[in-house]
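Action item from last week, closing it out:
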Amino acid sequence: MTYPDTELFIDGSWCAPARPAWIDVTDPATGQPIGRVAHARPADLDRAVAAAAKGFDIWSRTGVFDRYKMMRRAADILRSRVGALAPVMTAEQGKPLAEARAELAAAADIIDWFAEEARRSYGQVIPARSPGITQMTVKQPVGVVAAFTPWNFPVNQVVRKLSAALAAGCSIIVKGPEETPATPAALIAAFDEAGLPAGIANLVYGDPAEISAYLIPHPVVKKISFTGSTPVGKMLAGLAGQHMKKATMELGGHAPVLVFDDADLGRAIPVMAGHKFRNAGQVCVSPTRFLVQEGVYDRFLDGFARAAAAVKVGPGSDPDSTMGPLANDRRIPALEALIEDALESGGRLVTGGKRIGNAGNFFEPTVLAGVPGTARIMNEEPFGPVAVINRFETEDAAIAEANRLPFGLAAYGWTGSAERAHRLGHEVQSGMMTINHLGIGLPEVPFGGINDSGIGTEGGSEAIDAYLNTRFVTMAV
């Protein structure tokens, strides 16, 4: 596998930046540069905005069935290249090949889902009070979209925004992740090869602050979509608000897992351990605060720790690896500081807790126990392979702890009681709650948080609404 240098994609063409500037791309398994990505400057952004404005004029007038057909072709092209693109994703992001293949295959499914939604953006006729009056609502694309995406799921995070925008009839400028640029570029290439007209999808890379400060206030841009940390999301949402721009914010979480005495531990432990250490814990919905009832606490802690210790950490290119490196070297000192603080606060290290080796960004799957609520890791998203397992006595105490933080992205529950499951579904404050199985992140279901975890959803039938304006038309005949 030869890792490609990644150019900008503007107005239907791959191009170098107007003023030559490139950013190194590093393999997180070795710490060594493997390629470069073009660094867009204001002149490049000017071109991208002009192209997107022209593209919107074309695409918003394109019939929904033609949009649908083009998107389905793009999905088929991407699906045919999963085997070739998975090693590229692994090289730039670090995740195991199996996870890279799964992400790419899921991306094709997401395109297919939104292609179908393009044909189902219905308005309505509203009964009038007087004869001879017709009242109706129509849905129209909002305009040019600026999308900002992170490195943890290089294709998945782009494809949701791109597919929803295209299904609605919008054009888009994607600001992709500099750490993992090649696979988002391959996604855009699939749409280009499927026949998407020039200017409708544009891809840039560069300084995040510079690009967001340029695109969000720009009068041509009408809609913002961002996935990333809560502090940055709040800042960008504030900037969007100043300019009255629609904004979808998919932000950080600190997912609680509530495990009750009547839970099926034989299912709960492997499912939650696999989910915790997927993508080395670099997942916004990754379970972090495990709240386990007294009666099963010791068994759960022992079983989960053994599952963590059995994770095979290694280069994602090794077929035997079940967890790859952290995507960048910034995460290692961040995790070390959180773990040290947890131990100083009175927590106990059950397994893991250290960097592995001196080359690459490998870190041990880590389990902490008995960590007080004042410790940083109980309040800050670790975004890494660290689980905290604490005990609780009563149902009320577990729900209170689950709702203690301002986050509200994902939550998990395990219980044999239908009554308790019903209560969890209604009282745990999160945008997504999955009970007794892992059922979030599918194309057809909502994906998004509440409170400090964001605004809006990027999945399900509701996702396309953020890219549409609903207009009311009334007429007398």
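Closing note: The mean pLDDT is 97.
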